Amino acid sequence: MDEILIERDGGVATLTINRPERRNAVTNDMWDALREVFTEVAQRDEDRVLVVTGAGGAFCSGADLGGTPSPGSGADDAAATLREGGLARMRRIGSAALALHRLPKPTLAKVGGVAAGAGCNLALGCDLVVASSDARFSEIFSRRGLSLDFGGSWLLPRLIGLHKAKELAFFADILSADEAMALGIVNRVVPAEELDAFVDDWARRLAAGPPMALSLTKTMLNGSLALSMDEALEAEAQSQVINFGTADSREAMAAFVAKREPEFKGR
Q: Does residue 265 belong to any structural domain of this protein?
């Protein structure tokens, strides 16, 4: 669909939410399209890293709660549209969040402008978040009479702790990029004019890395809070056994001896 664009270059897949007239608010059909792209990238060996961004100066303002009302329609009509589908609709949204979380490759959010509600959690659901200095983040849900979704209730406590998570969720304050980085939900803040170049550099560095090793590291880190130290060490041991059996590991050793950069093939 025209609202979800995917471009590929040198192992970097870039997904752009393309509804700038609505600050990239996501419709029901777009949640399905996002899930399909996440699943496709997960399955394509050629895709080494996924960059998620938005068009037209915004990242994503969340779910499209208002849509484009017809002449004479009011708040009751909009509410009825939102209620349609109920739990099934929310499970579709959740399945997109889960597909992003399960994607076994590095994911990078490039955030310029607003990232609010589900759009905020779309960014936080990526492995790394780079924001322009004019970016803004908000768990806006409570201002709309709603509770957290798109994985926010799981992500926030793990990223910033339980009490800070409650503060962001209860008050729905708008955070500047610098405030978001101070809290730990953003990795880097760069001037707006440098955002593209910075993210491109990080994405290409990730794409040049060893796919299997990065995937195993991501899986272990994502599951670490549910493990004991014994279980984490066992997961590390099993992962290293897999790594030692790859051609990429042998290539890394050969490159080290030859004092050159390794060329990882993902096998």
A: no
